[in-house]
Each structure stands twice: as structure tokens, then as C-alpha cells.
Amino acid sequence: MGISALKYPLVILIILTALAFLAPVVAVYVLPMESSGETVFKYVEGQNPMNHIVFTFNDEISKNLIVETAPLGWTYLQTDSGFILSDNLLYPGGSLSMQTALKDYLESGDRPYTVTGTTTEGDIITCNSVMTVNSMFLMQVFLLLDSLKIFLLVGAVALGIAEVLLQVRSRGKKPAGVVAAAVAPIPVVAPVVAQSGEQAYVVYAVSDLHMGSNLIYEVKKVKATKLQAKTNNWTFEDKDVIETTTVDKSKSNLFNKAQADRFRNWLKFIDGEIESQHPNSECHLIINGDFLDLWQAKVPAKIGDFDTESGLLAHVPLYYANRVDLILDRHIRKYCGTAFYNDEGTCLKSTFEEKIVGENPNYDVVADLVRFAAKQNRTVFYLIGNHDDPLYAGNVKEDPAFGFKGVDADGLVKHLRNRLSGVIEDLNSQGAGIPNSALDNFIVDKHYWNEQLSVYAEHGHVYDEINLKDGSKPSKG
Asked: Which of 50, 84, 196, 230 is the most exposed place for a label (fewest CB within 10 A)?
């Protein structure tokens, strides 16, 4: 479902409505800052110092005036008509400066006021001055929003109702057309629904899931003592660790737990849609390339080439045959290696430990795909991209993506299907009742071509000479 033309105006209207209702609250804090300024009195005419000064303003100013800072040393008293300064002396030629602000918004312009000073000799001196009220842009905006808040609220509600009706209406539509792969980790793809002779088809497509490895590698380089070498006692403390190298492959795996859950929910959604709306149709699910990220699953160079005589962790020992196994393992494993070095830099001893640290979300995704493919009239087409090109790249003995026994691409595809068969066995042990023939509905190929529907799909890397690998070239992942 796409983004309707109403969504962005609706968001803007909601924001403006919220600002309109908040305007009176915000204005309390903004007004003093925006109206703040200096009120200055300069004593020009007179011979004796003043010790009592009265500032008188008109009603508009006096009711709203705030004296933020009184002159230093003067006693300040606010009155109904202004304020009074006393208990200090202002000599002829001197001046007073006060920081003032307003309580309420006033239109910009000059406002006259009167200053009456009493000297130490009892003389009264009166002079007139002008206070300039500056333009307050923010307050004007807040006042405008406040005056429009009811209209904005009504508009936001009306536009929101229209948006909901549009979304409900769009969900009821089933667009038809040429199938396209979703170039995103999680698809939002409408199916192609078509009739060809007596057979009805529904086709879904998704691409570039990039399901990678979640393994964790850790190698510790430990300083060994002569006593350890002599007694063959390889216990150590943290202070003996010279260097620790850790690589968590899940951090480079684009297909994390959240993405896996989203894809599984999407798969559940289309499964329900097929059963409710297309029960008699032939369903094709196209995974258009880069489903398995065999490039990402490569053992990190700084782990594989770790400087020990035995090449500690170089091939990730135990039962892994190739990178397909690294990705589809049921568990998330942490491989911990320890290498003991003497002062001359020679590795005296290396140890290896495997720990299970979690459940692999990749396994659940593959299990759901197997369940999907096992249902009537379902076929999953796994098309190969550049990140899983070892599945068709030919016989490459030097590429560990194929396993260290040097199998070819057909052997790797066969190994993948064996892994899927193992998943079926696991599910059946839980009572799923999936026949092995379900694997016939899981097809690995380079492209999809439905001649009856005139629908063709392939991964875009075949048009990129850098990423395209023919049968004679090895994967560089």
C-alpha cells in the first residue's frame, strides 16, 4: 500500500493544530524574551544630584511593564502608573539603565512616558521620553495560531477521516500487472493475479533479503610463562591477556531478528491471502536473488589469518562444511580461541571452545518457507544473485563458500537442499507431517520465466559486469 497524497498535508495540519493549542502556554515564556529591552534615563538639565526619580507611563504600558533588572544601588518600587527609584544619587550628566519587558503583546511603536526627579535641594525636574516597542514576530505567529485553533482542529479531523477512508478503500483493490521484485529487505508487494487458459495464477516476488551469518568469533592472545610450558598448565588470568580480537557477524548481517520477524509475518499474510482469496490458484513465490548472503558469511580475515602456527579458527572447525551451514545453523554460536605466546613471539599452545549463545532467526525463516512450499499448488523459486553466486558460479576449489572439499555449484545446491531436508525432519519430529516431496516445490535457478503469463524475473546484477560471474569465474565474496 503506497503513501496517499493526504498523508503529508495531514501531518502538517496536526502539527499546526498542536502548536495552536500550545501557543498560549508557550507565549508566557516567549513574550518576555522577545519584548525585552532597555529603558534609559539621562540626567541632562540640572545642577544638583537627584535622589528620588519617578517614571510614569500610560495605562497600556504600566499594566504590562516588567522591570527585570533595576539600576545597581537604587531601591525600586513598582506602582500602578510606573515605578520609583530612590535611596541613591544620580548626578548631572549621569544616566540610569533598566532592563524591562512586557507581560502581554502590544503592537509595535513608540510609547511616551514622563520622568520626574527630585534633587537633594528639593528641586523638581520633569522631562519627557519615549519607549519603543519592537515588532514581536513570534508572538504574532502564536496569536494567529491561537485565533485559528478551532479551524485547524476541524480541518485535521476531517482530513484524518478522509485519509482513513482512502486507506480502507485502497486495501480492497488488487492491482494487476507485471511482477516486480521488491528492492528492500522486507517486501510490500502486491501479487500478480492472472488467468491463463484453465489455470489461475498468483505470483509474489521479493528480493535482496541478505540473510547472513550471526556467528561470533573471539581470539585471545595470552602471554605464556616458562612454567606453563614446562608444567603444561595453561590456565591464565585477565591480566595475562595481551590482545583480544572479537568479530560479531550479526552486526554486519542486514537480516537481523527484527527483519526476520517482519518477513515471517509477511509470509504468513500472503499465505492467508492465498487460502482465503486464491484457494484454487497456482501460487509462485519468487525470491529474486541475494536470499543467502554468502559474501557476508565469510570468516573475517583478521580471524581466519590469526597469527598462530595452527591457523586458529581459520576454517571454523567442527561440523561446518561451507557458508550455507554458517547461515542456516539452528543456533547462534560463539567460537572462542586462545593462543599462548612466549616472549619470542612463538605460539606454544592454542585451544578452542564453542558456545551456544542464542537461537538463530534464520532457521525459523527457512522453516516457514518449507511449510509454505509444502502446501498445495505452491512453488518457491529461489533465483540467484551476486551475493549468493557460488550457487551457480562453477567449480571453485579455493573458495570456502563451497566447503573445503572443493565441491562445485551443483554440489552446493545439493547441500542446500539437504539442509532443507534436515529442516523438514526437525519439523516432522514436532508433528508437522511434511512430505520430503515438498522439496520439489523449492527450485533454485538463475531466472524465472512464466511463458503463459509473460512474466520474467531475474536479479539485476546480471547487467553489471563487475558483479556478474559466469561458470568459469569464482566468487570474490
From this structure: 230
Q: Going along 317-415, which residue ranges are E strands?
A: 331-341, 347-359, 378-383
Q: Which amino acid is at 255?
A: F
Kindly report, residue by residue over 365-399, the tens digit of the pLDDT: 999 999 999 998 899 999 998 888 888 765 455 55
For residues 459 and 382, give the distance between their C-alpha atoms in angstroms, rounded to a whole number: 11
- Angstrom distance (rounded) from CA 389 to CA 394: 9
Can you tell me the distance from the alpha carbon of 306 to that of 39, in angstroms, rounded to the nearest whole number? 75
- Among 340, 156, 322, which residue's Cα sits nearest to residue 236? 340
CA-to-CA dists, residue 103 to 20, 62, 145, 242, 439, angstroms: 20, 10, 19, 67, 78
With CA atoms as reference, report the closest residue to 202 among 123, 275, 119, 151.
Answer: 275
pLDDT for position 5: 62
Pairing of strands 282-288, 378-383: parallel
Query: Can you tell me the mean pLDDT for 165-177?
Result: 57
pLDDT, tens only, 125-149 = 888 888 888 887 887 787 888 888 8
Angle at 189 between CA 185 and CA 191, to 5 degrees: 145
Identify the three-state secondary structure at position 278.
Answer: coil
CATH class, domain 1-173, is mainly beta
Instruction: Report the relative pairing of strands 95-102 and 65-69 from DSSP bridges.
Output: antiparallel
* Helix (H) / strand (E) containing 238: none
Residue 452 CA to residue 455 CA, distance in Å, equals 8
Residues in the chain, total: 477
C-alpha cell at 68: 527585570
Q: Helix (H, G, I), strand (E, B), or coil: what is residue 406? A: coil
For the chain, where do the domains classified as CATH 2.60.40 start and end? 1-173
Residue 158: how many other CB atoms lie within 10 Å: 12
The DSSP annotation for 129-195 comes to EEEEEPP-HHHHHHHHHHHHHHHHHHHHHHHHHHHHHHHHHHHT----SS----BSSS---PPEEEE
Of 91, 65, 87, 60, give the one whose Cα is nearest residue 76: 87
Q: What are phi and psi of 213, to 5 degrees?
A: -80, 145
As beta bridge partners, residue 113 has 57, 129
Distance CA 11, CA 448 (A): 41
- Residue among 128, 133, 41 nearest 91 (CA): 41
Q: Which three cell numbers stand for residue 213?
A: 551469518
pLDDT at 19 over 90: no
Percentage of the chain surpassing pLDDT 90?
18
Angstrom distance (rounded) from CA 74 to CA 66: 17
Q: Please answer whether residues 388 and 290 qualify as being in contact, where contact means their C-beta atoms are separated by less than 8 angstroms.
A: yes
